[in-house]
UniProtKB/TrEMBL annotation:
Domain of life: Eukaryota
GO biological process: response to hormone; response to sucrose
Alphabetical keyword list: Membrane, Metal-binding, Transmembrane, Transmembrane helix, Zinc
Protein name: Heptahelical transmembrane protein 1
A GO MF term: signaling receptor activity
InterPro entries: AdipoR/HlyIII-related
Organism per entry: Clitoria ternatea
A Gene Ontology cellular-component term: membrane
Major place of residence: membrane
Membrane disposition: Multi-pass membrane protein
Taxonomic placement: Eukaryota, Viridiplantae, Streptophyta, Embryophyta, Tracheophyta
Residues the record lists as binding Zn(2+): H181, H326, H330
Subcellular location, record wording: Membrane
Length: 360
């Protein structure tokens, strides 16, 4: 069924059922058993919720917040949209907690406490490293600077905050998206507000994704860190201000918003190409690039599903509950974020072991 034909069917049905629609909505508001709200068809929806004409049934509309909250455990056409990003949120929360508690962090704490502890404990620790790094240490003795000290200072210098900024940004995006899909059925005002927050979440995720890569790739060239991080943050803040502005978030400025998103993406290409040159001799280049390409492919494919509304446009009504484009888009966003996480771990691990020593 073509696009025009589908629209025709929807319109016809809506015209035919005008009285029925009215009765149906009336029945909901005066229901003697308000615990169980009915799910509506596309042609029964208030205008502010008519977004995808290829999803025909199982809509919630004008539900109280409490009912919207409990619809988390009920089947409707937003159930999987909520859960795909809610599971993603819990996944990233678990990764954040695991990274906060992982041995590398414990090592840093250990370095800190060890510097305050007895010299006897230090000697044991150093003697183990001397055993491993004996030859190199001999070279360094000429300069009176033992390599062990250099390694320790490197380990303490590698900051974790850019990594956690990315994890925080991803969690914010995934959680705000879940909340948006869960409560957007409440009222027109809340619907408009939540979709704005959802856009902001996407921008936050894009900006924060840049942080660890730019920080760790250009760790030894702080001027590039500052230029790129300040640039992407300024662009992100401007985009967020635009998304939150009631005027600029109207349909009239859709092209302008699209241009802002594209600008952010295009801006990212500059440090990405620069990073490739900087890391050309890095033995982990291919694996990091592989993860980043998986991320780019996931986001691009997800956006393609989002824009084309495939597969529901091919068979309207067949994918109302499961398998429609927005669910595929959500799943691919989580895959993309996980790939970026894996790439970041590679970069972080390499910096932890090498500091500013290039490509050893
Ligand atoms: Zn969504």
């Amino acid at each position: 069924m073509s696009f025009v034909e589908t629209k025709g069917v929807v319109k016809r049905k809506c015209n035919n059922k005008e009285n029925l629609c009215f009765t149906h909505i009336n029945m909901i508001t005066t229901n003697t058993h308000p615990q169980r709200f009915h799910l509506l068809s596309f042609w029964d929806l208030p205008d502010y919720m008519k977004d995808n004409e290829y999803i025909l049934r199982y809509y919630r509309a004008n539900w109280p917040l409490k009912h919207a909250l409990f619809s988390l455990f009920r089947w409707h056409n937003e159930t999987l949209n909520v859960w795909t990003h809610l599971i993603g949120f819990f996944l990233f929360l678990a990764l954040t907690l695991a990274n906060l508690m992982k041995p590398r962090v414990a090592d840093l704490l250990d370095l800190f406490t060890r510097s305050l502890s007895s010299s006897a404990e230090k000697n044991v620790s150093h003697s183990i490293k001397d055993l491993v790094l004996g030859t190199t240490l001999l070279f360094d003795l000429k300069n009176q600077v033992p390599l062990t000290v250099e390694l320790e200072s490197t380990a303490t210098v590698i900051a974790r905050w850019p990594f956690f900024v990315f994890l925080g940004g991803s969690m914010f995006c995934l959680l705000s998206s879940s909340i948006c899909h869960l409560f957007c059925c409440h009222s027109r005002d809340l619907n408009l507000f939540l979709w704005r927050i959802d856009y902001v979440g996407i921008v936050v995720m894009i900006i924060t994704s840049f942080f660890p890569q730019i920080y760790y790739v250009f760790l030894c060239e702080p001027h590039w860190q500052i230029i790129y991080l300040a640039g992407i943050t300024a662009m992100g803040l401007f985009t967020i201000a635009t998304m939150l502005s009631p005027t600029l978030s109207t349909g009239k400025y859709r092209a302008f918003r699209a241009m802002l998103f594209c600008s952010m993406g295009l801006f990212g290409i500059v440090p990405a190409i620069h990073a490739c040159f900087v890391n050309w001799g890095n033995p982990r280049r291919n694996i990091t690039l592989g993860y980043e390409c998986t991320m780019a492919l996931s986001y691009l494919t997800g956006t393609l599903f989002y824009v084309t509304r495939i597969p529901e446009r091919w068979k309207p009504g067949w994918f109302d509950l499961a398998g429609h484009s927005h669910q595929i888009f959500h799943a691919l966003v989580v895959v993309g974020a996980l790939s970026h996480y894996a790439a970041t771990l590679q970069m972080l691990d390499w910096r932890d072991s090498h500091g500013c020593d290039m490509f050893l």
